[in-house]
Amino acid sequence: MVELEFDEFATGVAVLTIDRPHARNAIALETMGQLERALQAAAGARALVIKGAGDRAFVSGGDLKELSALRTEQDAAAMAKRMRDVCDQIAGFPAPVIAALNGHAFGGGAEVAVAADIRVAADDIRIAFNQVQLEIMPAWGGAERLAALVGKSRALLLAGSGIALDATDAERIGLVDVVVPRASFDTADKGWRSVANSLARRPAAEIKRVISGVSADEAIASFARLWVADAHWQAAERVMSRTANPRPAAGGAI
């Protein structure tokens, strides 16, 4: 089951949860369709969070019990294309997408994670592109996205060997962006909620669009639209007001 709700703690933050406890949140064919519908329903969100249910697995990969029924190259290619399209939709979502790694992300789960813009991980998780253990390779766009994050040689080492990284090592090489103590992972003021709320309150969607690749003229036009918006002038007034009326230093004379 894939659930979509808008976070009660942060305006404009949509939370997509993959909830398949019997399969450690593995992705089946039906899950792919549910993900597509959830992404469509999240349209208009200022930030999107993708996470797994529970605290053991983000996504443990593809559901082998179901996908083992695919025995022809044609069927395998069709499955790979369908889920690659889903990951492309995640990557192309108009607003920032945060993968909240509540648990381990293995195989296809790591591919879903790198389709997001930002990865926030609990400090006790591991992540691995370990498809080689099944004598296959990443098929959902994960190899290419991994290379874009960590470089081609490191991506080949990780995906070619299937080695699992803990959260600290994944952060060190740029595969994970933020590592949070498990106790703080789901709290409103820290962890993934804090990251999502911060992005939703600011024009991060426009920044994502420019980073994704637009012309210089389009980037300047985006800036100009933000410049003339009421939100910019309200923020500017607050800054200028603080500058004109600075607070007295703590402990200073009155």
Task: Walk me through the structure.
This protein has 254 residues and is an alpha/beta fold. The protein folds into 2 domains: 198 residues, Alpha-Beta Complex (2-enoyl-CoA Hydratase, Chain A, domain 1); 31 residues, no CATH class. It is 46% helix and 16% strand. The protein has a 6-stranded mixed sheet with strand order 1-2-3-5-7-10, with helices on both faces. Strands 4-6-8-9 form a 4-stranded mixed sheet. α1 links the parallel β2 and β3. α1 runs parallel beside α3 and α5 packs across α6. It is globular, with a radius of gyration of 20 Å. The termini are far apart.
Report a brief summary of the structure.
The protein has 254 residues and is an alpha/beta fold. The chain contains 11 helices and 10 strands. The mean pLDDT is 94.
The average pLDDT value, as a whole number, equals 94
Rg value: 20 Å
Biggest sheet: strand arrangement? 1-2-3-5-7-10
- Beta percentage is 15-25%
Q: End-to-end distance, in Å?
A: 61 Å
Can you tell me the number of structural domains? 2
- Per DSSP, the total helix count is 11
CATH superfamily placement of the largest domain: 2-enoyl-CoA Hydratase, Chain A, domain 1
Reported by name, the CATH topology of the largest domain is 2-enoyl-CoA Hydratase, Chain A, domain 1
Residues in helices, as a percent range:
40-55%
What's the SSE pattern? EEHEEHHEEHEEHHEHEHHHH
- Assign the CATH architecture of the largest domain: Alpha-Beta Complex
CATH class annotation of the largest domain: Alpha Beta
What is the overall shape? globular
The number of E-state strands comes to 10
Extract low-pLDDT stretches. Answer: none
Class of secondary structure makeup? alpha/beta
The biggest sheet, with number of strands, parallel, antiparallel or mixed sense and barrel status, is:
6 strands, mixed
Keywords: Fatty acid metabolism, Lipid metabolism
Protein name: Enoyl-CoA hydratase
Function: Could possibly oxidize fatty acids using specific components.
GO molecular function: enoyl-CoA hydratase activity
